[in-house]
Amino acid sequence: MTVADGELTRKIFVARSETGRGWGELLVQGISYFFLSLGGLSMIVPFLWMVGTSLKPAGEIYQPSFFPSSPTLANYQEVIFRTEFPHWYLNSLIVAIISTTSVAFFDTLAGYTFAKFDFPLKNVMFLLILSTLMVPTEMLIIPWYIMSVNFNWVDTYWGIAFPGVITASGVFLMRQFMTGVPNELIDAARIDGLWEFGIFYRIAVPLVKPAIAALCIFNFLGNWNAFIWPLIVTSKRLTMTLPVGLSFFSGEAGSDWHLIMTGATLSVIPLMTVVIIFQRQIIQGIALTGLKS
Predict the structure, then answer these.
(1) Whole-structure pTM value
(2) Alpha-carbon distance 63 to 67, whole Å?
(3) What CA–CA distance (Å, rounded) separates 139 from 148?
(4) What is the average pLDDT across 22-51?
(5) Which residues pair with 251 in a beta bridge?
(6) Cα 229 to Cα 222: distance, rounded to the nearest angstrom
């Protein structure tokens, strides 16, 4: 075999290898896109079905049609003007804002303290805070309720919001990010005469804004959708939150699915607004925290 024949054989072998790898990659990509499309449709179709059902008259609810034959806004008028829906909406918004504001401040401050200060039993206190993550929420409901009754917090905004004003996961998250703030910047600020809270507010907080944004977004979404604790701590219809209030559209005689779907459609508007406005921060938050759900 001459040198030219050997070179030709090598080129043919490389070309066959590249062709095989190319078809293999295309097959893997095709299968990946197929399953990703199925996953996307499984999330989008129920949402579109909910919106379509909210526009149907009550007589068309059980008809197997995706779109209403005669769209109407009567369901929205009934939900908004003939039920306590506006009160539930406002209650959910107030509770979510109270909880998110408190978490943003106290979790960030606690994380900064654990990351940048040395004090007795610091590690023990931090481990105690982390250990609360292992306690199921269902085990805490009875102590929370007894405390709410003793302090007359039942049927109040504070009674609904207080379990989430400081979160162990938020403290842990902010402590991890505050650890990355350079100590040289903090020492320079102290030399310049800035007081400790000023160092936290003017130096540390601006450097961890993406983490704070992610913490706030996930906390707001969690409180907006909370159901079990608001159901237990509220007994008056005017003090209930949105998820609890929507459950009253179902009863022993049946469920008003057109009203439930209408209320659910209206309830996702703030969530969609948050996602659209802060989608970049949400993606950064998922990447930073490693959360996948």
Answers:
(1) 0.76
(2) 10
(3) 15
(4) 88
(5) 254
(6) 12
